[in-house]
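Entry 12.
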Amino acid sequence: MSRGSDSLVAVVPPDSHLAVLDEVTWTELSLEPFVALQPGIGVRRLTDFGCASAGAAPHAVVTARGVATVAGLVAAGIGVSAVPQAVRPLIGFQPLPVRALVEPTVTREICLLGRDSPPPAAQAFRRAVAEAFA
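Predicted 3D structure (tokens):
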């Protein structure tokens, strides 16, 4: 089994006042129009947890089904959002400022399970995942 952790980060429009900060708090993020993922999606539970832990209640102006849609909406200036650090390659088509999201730092554990003696392709995949989350 391979393990790693993945922190949530803030994504903001390029012209946002939050874009000049090195890190953004959940409270600061929640004061902006928020692009949320649909309820029931794992990352949505994490963003809800981050906001609740900070005593913040973001105003969701729109909900999306996936992080690529979130990135497009944020890039269009609709609002700000929080996504896992690991999805940055999926949203790289948009020139979005990505900032550390703190107070609290919210992470998810990533686990990769498999057979003790997987085939070579599975071994290569396992190594790639382990390196990505090291």
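Annotation: The CA atoms of residues 71 and 91 lie 6 Å apart. The chain has a mean pLDDT of 91.
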